[in-house]
Design a protein that fits this description.
- The mean pLDDT is 95.
- Strand 4 and strand 5 form a beta hairpin.
- It is globular, with a radius of gyration of 13 Å.
- It starts with a helix and ends with a helix.
- The protein is built from five helices and five strands.
- It is α/β, with parallel strands linked by helices.
- The protein has a five-stranded mixed sheet with strand order 1-3-2-4-5, with helices on both faces.
C-alpha cells in the first residue's frame, strides 16, 4: 500500500533510510542532510510530497536528501526523530541536520492545511539559507 508513496519521493532523488544504522550514517556525516518523514496521511499526499517535488526542482539543495516512512520504517523513523531534540514526533515532517545537529524543522502542524506552493516556498528559503 505505501510503495507508491515511497516511490513518489525516491524518484525525486531522496534516499530511503530503513534502519537506525542507515540514519546514523546519513545524519552524522559532515555537511547538510535534508530529512523527510513520509506518511500516509492526507497532508502528506496533498501538501508535503507535492511541496517536496517543487522544492527539489530548485537549483540549491542540501548535500544529502533522505527519507523514512512513519509507521513502516519504525527503527529508522525513531532514530531520525532522536536527532529532532525538543520536538515531539510528527509526520509528515521535514528537517535539516547539519554536521549531526538539528538546524531546522517543519512539523505537521506547519504543513497541514497549507498549499504545496507555500510549503515549497518555505523549503526553498531554508535551502537558500544553507
Amino acid at each position: 500500500m505505501v510503495q507508491p508513496m515511497r516511490d513518489e519521493v525516491t524518484r525525486l532523488g531522496m534516499k530511503e533510510m530503513r534502519t537506525a544504522a542507515e540514519v546514523d550514517s546519513e545524519l552524522n556525516a559532515p555537511g547538510t542532510a535534508f530529512v523527510f518523514i513520509n506518511s500516509v496521511c492526507g497532508c502528506a499526499a496533498g501538501g508535503a510530497r507535492p511541496a517536496l517535488k517543487m522544492a527539489l526542482a530548485h537549483s540549491k539543495k542540501p548535500e544529502r536528501l533522505t527519507t523514512a516512512f512513519a509507521g513502516n520504517d519504525v527503527e529508522a523513523v525513531a532514530k531520525a526523530r532522536s536527532y529532532f531534540t525538543g520536538f515531539p514526533p510528527s509526520s509528515p515532517q521535514f528537517a535539516i541536520i547539519k554536521d549531526g545537529k538539528l538546524a531546522w524543522i517543519m512539523e505537521r502542524w506547519q504543513i497541514e492545511g497549507r498549499a504545496p506552493e507555500s510549503i515549497a516556498a518555505d523549503l526553498v528559503k531554508v535551502f537558500d539559507a544553507m
